[in-house]
Predict the structure of Zn(2)-C6 fungal-type domain-containing protein.
Amino acid sequence: MPPKRALGPFDKRRRVTRCQACATRKIRCSGGIPCSYCVRTNRNCLEQDKKRPATTIIGHTHDVIYQSRQSRKTLNQQMGNRTEIRYIDQFMAFIRRNRFTRRFRCLPTEVVPLLHTSTLLSLAVTAIGALDAARHASVSTHRGQESPRLIALSAYSSSLRELQTALADSDVARREDVLWGTFFLGLFELMADPSGEGWAKHMLSGTSKLLQLAGPGQKMSTPRQMFFELFRVLEASRTLLYGATSILPELEWLHSPRDESSATTDQDGLETMLSLMIRTSTFSARFFDLVHGVQDPDLPLIHALGLEGLEIQRSIYEWHNRAIILLDQVANADFLQLAFVYSHALLIFLSNNYNYYPYWSHRQAPRLSHWETDYHVDAILEQADRILTASDIPGVLLFFPLRVAGSRAKDGMQRARILGMLDRVWKNGFMVSKRIGSDLQEYWEYHKMRVA
């Protein structure tokens, strides 16, 4: 009988392997070379081929090290992709909580597909998602990973570089990703910069110039229409809030090209109210240019300005009467409520212009009585609080009316209520609300000293 195959002291009998012939027939092998079966059948007794193990635990060969490095690289890429997806998901959650326009909910279907082809847009969206995640602690991180806030700042810086590169493109005015990327950069600054200066820079100097460059011959795609609706809401408020010159009157041609999915009628009165806000801000800028330096209060100019202001005031009252009827007709009245808040603020804003000068003390002008002013302040506070509590309209759209209400808030209760609402906006992620609150407190202190 052939000798048994030698075994080590720890190998045990189960470690004995069959020869190739026995393994093929799936029979027990006696062991040794040759085995009894191969001798009996006159076969060549060969050991089975030893397959290389998939994972080498001991050993430092070059190919094992290379495979390990490649595996780590692939794993890091996969983790990076997962991280980006998580922050894009967080961005989508942010969008659901902050509906800037009626069609803003269509953003996932109309704008998000651009992320696959635009590094600029992808980075800007990641920056917002990561910053929002950092504040809500909604994304977990592991040891050695960057924090969401660092990822947000890094993505923001990278997107700015991508924007600079994109602006050198001769066809930049036609690129939807650059238009939306510029807006999202401005939105990030609203969330991160208490001064609001970066927001003004990107909204006024960035997006408005891109819209101008496109010109009236540019076909209005759905994402571009959505963007202009958004830009119009924010820019109308910004110019009134900061007393800045608006480019919106020069872009009114953008109202004409609409597709069938867009609202051809003013469903909730907001479009008409925005037109009144643009009209008022344009008039206000011209008003102060003309009144500045006037020496003779009997000039026909003073009378004409009073009548023009009354005409704007009359248009606001007419809008208000029509909008009350809409309350029973619209399914979702959130943006109609916002338009009502704007109407009350616009009446106070217009009256304030004439209160700065003594020329209209005994002349016709859109000046409000103390009782009327108090009524509009209370209306702003009631409706703004309702919007913040029961709707998904972001608080940044209330900065203009809250600032105007603050300019005429007399008692401590009204002022505390305004600051409380601004604090809620701050807690929802918009740092710039602190600037509005600080400006109001400085104004109240100045007014107190002046009265004393």
Remarks:
- Residues 263-368 form one domain.
- Residues 62-97 form the longest helix (36 residues).
- The CA atoms of residues 341 and 382 lie 9 Å apart.
- The chain has four domains: 15-41, 81-241, 263-368, 369-451.
